[in-house]
Specification:
about 900 residues, mainly beta, Maltoporin, Chain A, 22-stranded antiparallel barrel, 43 strands, about 10% helix, cell outer membrane, transmembrane, Plug_dom_sf
């Protein structure tokens, strides 16, 4: 992959370097292209050049100018990031303290994230419990110079993981003086108050030079109860959540509370009341779920970064770089709830009534002593360190030798009810019957009586997990001119790497030992792997108009007693028939070693936070929005296993494009891209299995197809004549597999235009559009391999458009930035939510040479995307946020320099 010069998120902004004797260099000075910078895509220094593959660059100043909340927000907004991902604002996920991106919709684990061109440690907890990825939520912006994004296969330059592309976060190498940045803001609708302070500086001591930066920030959570449209789950006519429920286990009918819920009427801000369901009366509230759910996590963090260089004689330079981070994140997805004997039969025999009963309770903030008493907490500590030397070899050749170490430690604490909750609500257990059913002499008055904070404290505790990951690497590289061709010097680069990578997930040993209510044991999982790599790259200007690029690399991994490796290559052409036109093409192969979590995960059991039984909904003839079996919480049990026999993924990517820049004030680029993966490693989605099972059982899909036979075998249901929960899902079996293939292709179009007026200052308009034309996924050979784009089965963005208009007049700079997302399927899978626009705005006033004040507004028109077919929380979770308009005031001041 070659260096590109797209200096904004939307367009390229430079032309190739010219020999002074080249007649094409005689360009009118006022239209001469601007100088470019070295960016991701190649290990060859190619100043002032375009290449065969496009690279998007986000400058540090773009983060505020375009209205982004943080680095993660900017990366998520890229048009190339068409994939749906769960993050810190998604809600109930495996990784609510982390964010990920999915270039070209190929998943977070197919995008390689680098800092200063070096690998960093993965987030120590797997995304969706399955795949490894790099967390982009804790990347500070204090010392960022630019972020470079190369989309497409790049394994021949960077090795495994770079199937969908590469994100390289480049830190500043030089800072003059000391700068202070203060920022504070919040949301118009409430919640999310935040503040940030940054201090950056640098020094030049002759031979010794350095830069440093410190960032501290804080953010309050946003609770769903702070948004009127989802403050109550019954607003659209849905049944209230059960707060107090007592059922006959055999028939499932609710047993009417004797006091009509009078004792509980003050809970959830006085919203608990009797509700007459089809199968009886229970005490419910529409505020039970919104009260506890945070739609944005709370966060406190501190980050520090710095770099030193020491100039020696003979062109030799020693360097050291470091980034350090500490963060505490809190969220809540539901308050504590309880179901009688949930770890056993799920029901008990009541000696007082001589019948099988199921008791349920959902505890209110008034009983806990505050809604945040049951917040989960994540405490993260990270470091990235690199030391090395670089300098001149002979002639034009330079070298770099470096050692880098990256470490990520996460400690999580989760509030839980202890096993004592059973006796608190049911009384002492007095034995079991002939069928193994627990027997209690349970007084319903115990169930319908609100508890005190002291009673909750007596039956609550916190469990913990300790998760760590690391990545160490030694690397040596050299680059320079090799020999001459008619078009110029052939430049070459070679690289050798050796590294080790590992992770460890350790859980509280009390889980599954009967200490906590309804928990299962979680074994310690660990794994390591070693990697060796050797690669080379050539850039050959065959003529002044035609340049060829070739790169090849071999990576070999050692893990789990086996060895796996791959040789990948890249070939590209740049053709410039005119000084203003570049035609480019590239083809690359890539690979990805299986995620360590896929390889080393043991058999684990657990349950999903919520599940939908699509088959029973279909049997009942109920749409998902009104189905009694949709979004049931807690969800179904699952059994998950890893596999050390997984094969590495193999990918291919193609690119064909053109860049036209008739004058320096205007450029236009068009690029077609395609990426294909075979032997894709993926963890089966339990929700996808349930959907497929329902289609197979109801005849929508061929019951004899390989997919149907697999899905039906994975879902174990209770017998239809079972006493309790007949026909319900008892367990789902999931595991990673090598899918047959996955492929996607589409088009990127970018343009930029700049103009200057005598009275109205300077203007810049730019835009970038990505359209996914095809996305195909085939789980097993012989299965349907249709294009999912345009169907409800396509869960990613079909298109994204970013556009901005900037105006500079005197000391003022104003920017409007708009994003348009293509249509997505409604939750009920019947119909669409059309394209959607969001607009950010910023204005900055340069008071003097040292001081600047800015106002930034995100979601200028305070729009919240709704889904009329959705159940609570009534918006497309994950695709859009319910936060509404947010604003910040920012002050920059520079000392010295």
């Amino acid at each position: 992959m070659q260096a590109q010069t797209a200096v904004t998120p939307s367009a390229q902004d430079a032309s190739p370097a010219r020999d002074p004797k080249d007649p094409r260099a005689a360009v009118d000075a006022k239209d001469a292209p601007l100088p470019s910078v070295l960016v991701t895509g190649s290990r060859i220094s190619r100043i002032n050049s375009e290449g065969p593959s496009p690279v998007t660059v986000i400058k540090a100043e773009d983060l505020d100018r375009l209205g982004y909340k943080n680095v993660s927000d900017a990366l998520s907004g890229l048009t190339e990031n068409t994939g749906f991902t769960q993050g810190e604002d998604f809600g109930n996920t495996f990784t609510p303290a982390a964010n990920a991106i999915s270039l070209r919709g190929l998943g977070p684990n197919h995008t390689l994230v680098l800092v200063n061109g070096r690998r960093v440690a993965d987030y120590p907890t797997a995304y969706e419990g399955s795949v490894n990825f790099v967390n982009i939520a804790n990347i500070p912006s204090a010392l960022i110079d630019r972020i470079e994004v190369l989309s497409g296969g790049a394994s021949s330059v960077y090795g495994s993981d770079a199937i969908a592309g590469v994100v390289n976060i480049v830190l500043k190498k030089r800072v003059e003086g000391v700068s202070v940045n203060l920022r504070a803001g919040g949301t118009q609708r409430g919640g999310g108050e935040n503040a940030r302070a940054q201090i950056t500086g640098g020094f030049d001591g002759g031979r010794l030079q350095g830069v440093w930066g410190i960032e501290v920030s804080g953010r309050e959570p946003i609770w769903s109860r702070q948004r009127d449209f989802m403050a109550d789950t019954t607003l659209s006519g849905a049944a209230p959540t059960v707060v107090f429920g007592r059922r006959n286990a055999t028939g499932g009918a609710y047993l009417t509370p004797s006091d009509g819920c009078a004792a509980a009427s003050g809970l959830f801000e006085g919203s608990v009341a009797p509700y007459q369901a089809r199968n009886g009366t229970y005490c419910g509230s529409g505020r039970a779920s919104p009260t506890y759910w945070t739609t944005q996590t709370g966060n406190r963090s501190a980050q520090a970064a710095g770099g030193l260089t020491w100039q020696l004689d003979g062109g030799l330079e020693l360097f050291a770089e470091g980034q350090f981070g500490w963060a505490r994140t809190e969220n809540n997805t539901r308050g504590p709830s309880w179901t009688s004997d949930a770890a056993g039969k799920g029901y008990f025999r009541n000696a007082a009534t001589n019948q099988l009963e199921i008791w349920t309770r959902r505890f209110a903030p008034e009983e806990l002593g505050g809604v945040d008493r049951f917040n989960r907490q994540w405490r993260d500590a990270t470091h990235n360190l690199a030391v090395g030397a670089r300098g001149e070899l002979t002639g034009s050749w330079t070298f770099e030798v470096a050692a880098n170490s990256s470490y990520y430690l996460n400690r999580t604490t989760t509030p839980r009810l202890t096993a004592g909750i059973e006796s608190l609500l049911l009384g002492p257990r007095i034995g079991t019957d002939a069928n193994g059913v627990a027997i209690y002499s349970a007084d319903p008055a115990r169930l319908f009586r609100p508890l005190t904070p002291q009673e909750i404290d007596s039956v609550s505790d916190r469990s913990w997990t300790r998760n760590a990951s690391w990545n160490q690497q030694l690397s040596a590289s050299a680059s320079g001119e090799w020999f001459q061709l008619p078009g110029g010097p052939v430049r070459a680069a070679v690289v050798a790497e050796a590294g080790t990578q590992g992770f460890r997930n350790e859980a509280d040993p009390r889980l599954g030992q009967g200490v906590f209510y309804n928990t299962s044991a979680s074994p310690t999982v660990r794994g390591t792997r070693e990697r060796l790599a050797l690669g080379g790259e050539l850039n050959a200007p065959i003529t002044r108009q035609l340049t060829a690029t070739v790169a090849a690399r071999h990576d070999r991994y050692e893990f789990a007693g086996r060895s796996d490796g791959s040789t990948t290559y890249n070939a590209g052409l740049e053709f410039r028939p005119l000084s203003t036109l570049l035609l480019r093409a590239q083809h690359a192969t890539s690979f990805r070693a299986p995620d360590m979590n896929y390889i080393f995960a043991q058999q684990t059991k657990g349950y999903y936070s919520s599940s939908t039984d699509y088959y029973r909904c279909a049997q009942a003839g109920q749409p998902l929005s009104q189905c009694d079996f949709a979004g049931v919480s807690p969800g179904f049990n699952y059994v998950r296993t890893g596999s050390s026999d997984l094969k590495s993924e193999r990918g291919r990517s193609w690119g064909l494009g053109a860049v036209w820049q008739p004058v320096s004030s205007f450029d236009l680029s068009v690029d077609l891209w395609k990426i294909a993966i075979r032997d894709l490693v993926t963890d089966l989605s339990a929700d996808g299995v349930l959907r497929t099972e329902a289609d197979c059982r109801t005849g929508v899909k061929d019951p004899q197809s390989p997919t149907c036979q697999d899905a039906v075998a994975r879902v174990r249901r209770n017998p239809l004549d079972a006493v309790v929960r007949p026909g319900e899902v008892a367990e789902i079996r999931v595991n990673p597999i090598n899918a047959a293939n996955e492929s996607t292709w589409g088009v990127d179009v970018g343009a930029r235009y700049r103009w200057t007026t005598a009275s109205w200052g300077r203007w810049t308009a730019d835009a970038k559009y990505t359209r996914v034309k095809s996305f195909k996924y085939q789980q097993f050979a012989g299965d349907d391999n249709r294009n999912l784009v345009g169907t409800p089965d396509f869960s990613d963005w079909p298109s994204k458009l970013n556009a901005s208009l900037s105006w500079e007049l005197g000391d003022w700079t104003h920017t409007l930035a708009a994003q348009r997302n293509g249509r997505i399927a409604r939750e009920e899978q019947d119909g669409w939510l059309g394209p959607y626009w969001n607009v950010n705005a910023s204005t900055a006033w340069q008071l003097d040479k040292r001081t600047r004040v800015s106002l930034i507004v995100n979601n200028l028109f305070d729009k919240i995307r709704r889904d009329p077919s959705a159940t609570w929380p009534y918006y497309p979770v994950g695709y859009y946020l319910p936060h509404g308009r947010q604003g910040w005031i920012e002050l920059d001041y520079r000392f010295g320099g």
